Backbone:
């Protein structure tokens, strides 16, 4: 429950207590609080491919601190995603010896770090899959190389990602209910034009979450 929801509910409860100080009203208030929580939990929307997860500001895992994760697959086994805003110092031609590309590679999760995937805004790439608004997942890598070489695609129109995030069935949903993540959406303009260091805070501010202002202060866990 958000602070605003708690504040609004508590104000209502206090007003009722001021009017009627009796056992029956106390029981009614307790029942109301229980029903309110039940309805709120059941408003939880199913997480789908293309959704993004915004990590709580002080996440226990270092690599997830202020992370923005996109869900790319959901099935009976669970969910798979990629971190979108963890820029590394490694370039593509260092990770793959047979490519001339010099784009930076992003650390996108601890699983399968030897696999590099990519997300972009060019729907003409053969085999790409629509994943979010004006965003596409994967496709023919050789075609991507040619488009970048011929300047038919700008360097900033694509993001190369090493690794994946994985959750067993039901685990991610529980993490969201425990408010370890906020859910949101993203489009190509936001992903590819906002600096990765600012993506976490900008998305939170756009969603009306004041935690986005925390990028203006140091993380005490880093001191």
Residues:
């Amino acid at each position: 429950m958000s602070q605003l929801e708690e504040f609004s509910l508590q104000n209502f409860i206090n007003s009722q207590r001021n009017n009627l100080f009796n056992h029956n009203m106390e029981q009614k208030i307790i029942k109301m609080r229980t029903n309110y929580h039940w309805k709120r939990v059941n408003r939880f929307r199913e997480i789908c491919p293309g959704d993004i997860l915004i990590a709580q500001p002080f996440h226990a895992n270092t690599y997830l601190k202020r992370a923005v994760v996109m869900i790319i697959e959901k099935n009976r086994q669970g969910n798979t995603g990629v971190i979108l805003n963890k820029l590394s110092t490694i370039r593509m031609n260092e990770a793959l010896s047979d490519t001339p590309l010099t784009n930076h590679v992003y650390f996108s999760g601890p699983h399968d770090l030897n696999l590099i995937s990519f997300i972009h805004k060019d729907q003409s790439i053969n085999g790409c899959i629509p994943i979010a608004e004006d965003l596409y997942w994967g496709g023919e890598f050789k075609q991507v190389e040619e488009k970048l070489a011929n300047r038919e695609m700008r360097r900033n129109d694509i993001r190369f990602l090493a690794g994946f995030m994985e959750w067993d069935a039901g685990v991610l949903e529980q993490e969201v209910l425990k408010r370890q993540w906020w859910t949101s959406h993203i489009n190509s303009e936001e992903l590819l034009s906002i600096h990765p260091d600012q993506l976490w805070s900008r998305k939170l501010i756009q969603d009306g979450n004041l935690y986005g202002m925390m990028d203006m202060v140091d993380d005490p866990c880093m001191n």
Q: What stands out?
A: Strands lie at 52-55, 68-75, 78-83, 87-91, 104-107, 111-120, 129-132, 135-137, 158-168, 181-184. Residues 3-42 form one domain.
